[in-house]
Amino acid sequence: MIDGATISQELRAGADRTLDEVLRLAVRQIHADGEKYDWVGIYLLKGDHLVLHNYIGEPTDLARIPVGSGVCGTAIAEDRDINVPDVQAIDNYLACSIETQSEIVVLIKDGERTLGQIDIDSDTRAAFDDRDLAELRKVAAALGEVLGPKLRHHE
Ligand code: SME
Fold first, then answer.
1. Using a 6 Å cutoff on CB, does residue 26 contact ligand 1?
2. Fewer beta carbons within 10 Å, N or C terminal of the chain?
């Protein structure tokens, strides 16, 4: 199980890192501690698309996802975190790997502004529970704080 507070502390401590360094660190830490986290990535919102930045896991063609598409795009369109215990049971799932059984998406926000999301796929069915969600929300909160000012620079 990941320790969201420790990862958040580490992210906040290095606020002078570049955007890419922050994303890489976050993805690495989440992947290292999440036993069932087979694919971990961070998508950032750019206009009406999600753009994949850093990730660990099998390469994917889904580097750009329109808002409203798939689990990732739906989370943005509906402004909510989404936990899918069985990806085969939903119609709008975009397959990244045929091995994937379950997926969780947690939004990254800077106040009201949505910056992107943490996306995790697991080859285990129903891999994510409320503890995963709670720990990932801590990491997402730290990412929102640290990335907010950096992304304002990028615009
Ligand atoms: N499954 C996601 C697509 C991204 S991959 O999981 C990396 C979706 O349905 O939006």
1. no
2. C
Each residue's pLDDT tens digit, 52-103: 999 999 999 999 999 999 999 999 999 999 999 999 999 999 998 999 999 9
Q: What is the extent of the structural domain holding 36?
A: 4-154
Q: How far apart are CA 22 and CA 13, in angstroms?
A: 11
**Nearby residues of 101 by Cβ (< 8 Å), 6 or more positions away:** 86, 87, 88, 122, 123, 124, 125, 126, 127
46: which DSSP letter? E
Calpha distance 110→120 (Å, rounded): 20
CATH number of the structural domain spanning residue 135: 3.30.450.40
Task: Supply the pLDDT for residue 15.
Answer: 72
DSSP assignment of 95-112: -S-TT--EEEEEEEEETT
Cα 70 from Cα 90, distance rounded (Å): 9
Q: Tokens standing for 82? A: 């989404």
What is the share, in percent, of the chain residues with pLDDT greater than 70? 98
Beta strands in the chain (DSSP E): 39-46, 49-56, 64-66, 82-84, 102-110, 113-122
Could you tell me if the CB of 121 is within 6 A of ligand 1?
Answer: yes
Number of domains in the chain: 1
